[in-house]
């Protein structure tokens, strides 16, 4: 009679109860799905005339079928059919031959199975041969009742595959099951195997009543999902489904440490701090228990696990912004690492500790960590520290040549060490630096370089490219840069690709969500459809509070709600100063200056604009510097000093036309309205008309109807001065059509920049 442990190991038809035994004590057991795989192997060995391409496809399919989770009969047949349609019929005939007849037919199949491979050396040494010998060994250890239940499971398995037994057969099976139940109940000792009756009563397998995975299946499943989460999250299971699978594994083996760690990674995808903390602690608890024989202060054993457990907990708190808890955990990890003299762990602690600090303290700590990592030959940590220093240097206004020199030095080390993850981060960081400094052409080049670079990672599980955070950042840069040029068709294609590669449930989806919302908001504002822009403000605020408030202030300003916009801009400035977001501080100053234009006068805007210009130059933000100079030039024009305004615009015109957005180019070309005075010559007036025409083309790319109306008004004035009656009437007509469509302007003689 089979023991309790034998039943647990070898019987796949288990009830959905609590199992106290460790089911991973045995490597594998027989299931109906594995019988189907054995039938496929048998037919492949006995079917000689087979196309070479079909055999090659089937050979590539065998290993995933052996190591993967059990498939339904429909899924199994569909998978085989994709490789070799002719083989599907042979496998179905073999399985239906066993399922529709007697138990001895299944016994006969296992008896003749080794004969098909007896003359093959692969049966003794290959993975396929090992799998078959394990299945034969597991089958031979089954008791008679377990063999019968396996046979009934095979019948149910084939029935769910689309072939229902006849009514007589089903009645015959039902009577046989009833008779067998009575015999087993009356003759067997129920105390010796309490699972028997429940197992006999188990119906068709479903997601709720599926049995445990074998050790190999569980290990393969965890390794595959962990790899996909790291390199291509889109192809991994969705968070809810993956958590159900992990709960099923942990239900049968709560001490499986790797399953707890994958649960931690899965919870981080959805920012669930409770489950992620719970899973991380359980992972290290199980890891420490499994390595309890080691010395607590040595390199091995639970001492090392404990050090890294506290370090990972600090990283978790740091990721969620809980810097105080992270600091406490890091101090504990440092203390334990110092007691054990673990220099590697101390270096990891120093890198993370520098991230919890701010200002000069963070820079000094990061520099120390880079030096120590280089001393202990830890290239990954050293490179990561340099990239962190580059990021901090960019935020503090360090010149671009110094930052790029530092990155170039690390790139050489990345390629030597084949650190593909850091190569991706370096390229994405370089694209971000170029864009922040206002060099959009170079930013596009670096983003394209990253997207067209082949991955250095081994291509497993059908992953063709690492769909990680750097790739999402590069694509978001391209989307926003195309939107700045008015290429909304290309933007739509990029966002569509981002949605496919990073679905909403993935952890990096918020990157493209924020970019898409900002693009749609700017488009609605340019179109003058403010009622459509308001929902985008709410959505942006949910992803980024500072960005959302800034967009809300822009919307209120467009709606002439000056006082409310001023209050919100003050809040944004306080938040930006607290987070040291220099770019947002400058943008707030420019927006506040525009409010002064509409309320207190142009002279009051000059101090703010000069302060913004000094800040932009201090931090080498060329794009914002050009935008600030355009605001200064417009202010000087309105104050009656057009010569100085013209000189300012000419200084930045080349940079704006080379790297600026379409909106900035159109603004810069409005230099023609500085030349409107009547004492100008005919040639200069004609040149001003041409420049206004170029500006109108740029505004039409963005569909900026408000600014187009102003351009048509100025064109009509200039054509009237030149005596071009026909062109004047044409411009006046275009102005009138837009003026009827848009809300009335307060003062067309004083256009907005």
Automatic annotation (TrEMBL):
GO terms under biological process: anaphase-promoting complex-dependent catabolic process; cell division; positive regulation of mitotic metaphase/anaphase transition; protein K11-linked ubiquitination
Keyword Oxidoreductase: no
Associated pathway: Protein modification; protein ubiquitination
Keywords (A to Z) from UniProt: Cell cycle, Cell division, Cytoplasm, Cytoskeleton, Mitosis, Nucleus, Phosphoprotein, Repeat, TPR repeat, Ubl conjugation pathway
Keyword Oxidoreductase: no
Domain of life: Eukaryota
Segments forming domain Anaphase-promoting complex subunit 5 N-terminal: 30-161
Compartment list: Cytoplasm, Cytoskeleton, Spindle; Nucleus
Region entry Disordered, spans: 161-212
Name of the molecule in the record: Anaphase-promoting complex subunit 5
């Amino acid at each position: 009679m089979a023991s309790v442990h034998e039943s647990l190991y070898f019987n796949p038809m288990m009830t959905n109860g609590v199992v106290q035994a460790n089911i991973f004590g045995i490597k594998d057991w027989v299931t109906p799905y594995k019988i189907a795989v054995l039938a496929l192997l048998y037919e492949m060995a006995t079917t000689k005339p087979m196309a070479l391409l079909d055999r090659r496809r089937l050979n590539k399919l065998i290993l995933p079928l052996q190591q993967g989770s059990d498939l339904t009969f429909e899924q199994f047949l569909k998978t085989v059919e994709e490789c070799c349609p002719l083989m599907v019929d042979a496998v179905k005939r073999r399985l239906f031959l066993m399922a529709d007849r007697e138990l001895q037919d299944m016994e006969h199949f296992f008896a003749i199975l080794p004969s098909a491979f007896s003359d093959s050396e692969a049966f003794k040494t290959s993975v396929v041969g090992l799998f078959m010998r394990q299945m034969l060994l597991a089958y031979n250890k089954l008791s008679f009742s377990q063999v019968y239940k396996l046979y009934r499971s095979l019948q149910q398995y084939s029935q769910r595959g689309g072939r229902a037994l006849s009514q007589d057969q089903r009645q015959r099976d039902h009577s046989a099951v009833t008779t067998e139940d009575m015999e087993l109940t009356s003759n067997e000792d129920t105390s010796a195997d309490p699972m028997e009756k429940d197992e006999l009563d188990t119906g068709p397998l479903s997601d709720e009543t599926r049995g445990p995975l074998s050790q190999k299946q569980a290990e393969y499943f965890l390794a595959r999902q962990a790899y996909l989460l790291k390199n291509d999250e889109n192809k991994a299971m969705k968070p809810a489904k993956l958590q159900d699978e992990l709960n099923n594994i942990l239900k049968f083996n709560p001490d499986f440490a790797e399953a707890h760690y994958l649960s931690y990674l899965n919870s981080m995808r959805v920012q669930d701090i409770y489950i992620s903390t719970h899973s991380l602690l359980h992972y290290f608890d199980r890891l420490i228990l499994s390595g309890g024989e080691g010395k607590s202060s040595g390199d091995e054993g639970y001492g090392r696990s404990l050090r890294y457990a506290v370090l990972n907990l600090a990283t978790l708190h740091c990721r969620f912004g809980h810097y105080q808890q992270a600091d406490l955990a890091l101090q504990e990890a440092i203390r334990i690492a110092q007691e054990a003299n673990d220099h590697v762990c101390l270096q990891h602690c120093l890198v993370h500790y520098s991230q919890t600090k701010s200002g000069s303290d963070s820079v000094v700590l990061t520099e120390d960590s880079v030096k120590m990592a280089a001393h202990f030959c830890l290239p990954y940590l050293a490179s990561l520290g340099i990239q962190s220093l580059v990021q901090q240097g960019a935020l503090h206004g360090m010149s671009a040549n110094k930052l790029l020199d530092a990155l170039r030095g690390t790139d050489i080390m990345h390629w030597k060490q084949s650190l593909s993850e850091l190569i991706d981060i370096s390229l994405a960081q370089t694209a971000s630096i170029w864009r922040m400094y206002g060099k959009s052409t170079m930013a596009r080049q670096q983003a394209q370089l990253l997207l067209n670079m082949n991955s250095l990672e081994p291509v497993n599980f059908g992953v063709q490219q690492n769909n990680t955070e750097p790739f999402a950042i590069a694509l978001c840069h391209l989307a926003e840069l195309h939107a700045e040029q008015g290429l909304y068709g290309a933007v739509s294609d990029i966002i569509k690709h981002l949605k496919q590669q990073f679905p909403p449930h993935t952890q990096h989806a918020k990157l493209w969500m924020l970019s898409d919302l900002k693009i749609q908001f700017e488009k609605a504002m340019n179109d003058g459809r403010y009622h459509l822009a308001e929902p985008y403000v709410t959505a942006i605020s949910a992803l980024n509070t500072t960005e959302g408030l800034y967009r809300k202030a822009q919307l209120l300003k467009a709606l002439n709600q000056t006082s409310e916009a001023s209050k919100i801009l003050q809040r944004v400035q306080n938040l930006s100063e607290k987070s040291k977001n220099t770019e947002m501080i400058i943008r707030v100053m420019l927006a506040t200056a525009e409010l002064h234009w509409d309320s207190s006068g142009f002279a009051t805007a000059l101090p703010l604009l000069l302060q913004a210009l000094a800040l932009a130059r201090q931090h080498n933000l060329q794009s914002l510097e050009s935008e600030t100079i355009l605001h200064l030039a417009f202010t000087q024009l309105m104050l009656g000093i057009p010569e100085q305004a013209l000189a300012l615009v000419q200084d930045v015109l080349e940079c704006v036309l080379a790297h600026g957005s379409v909106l900035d180019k159109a603004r810069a070309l409005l230099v023609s309205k500085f030349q409107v005075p009547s004492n100008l010559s005919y040639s200069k007036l004609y040149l001003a008309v041409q420049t206004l025409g170029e500006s109108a083309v740029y505004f039409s790319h963005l569909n900026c109807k408000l600014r187009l109306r102003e351009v048509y008004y100025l064109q009509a004035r200039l054509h009237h001065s030149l005596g071009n009656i026909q062109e004047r009437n044409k411009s006046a007509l275009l102005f009138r059509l837009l003026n009827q469509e848009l809300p009335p302007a307060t003062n067309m003689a004083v256009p907005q920049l």
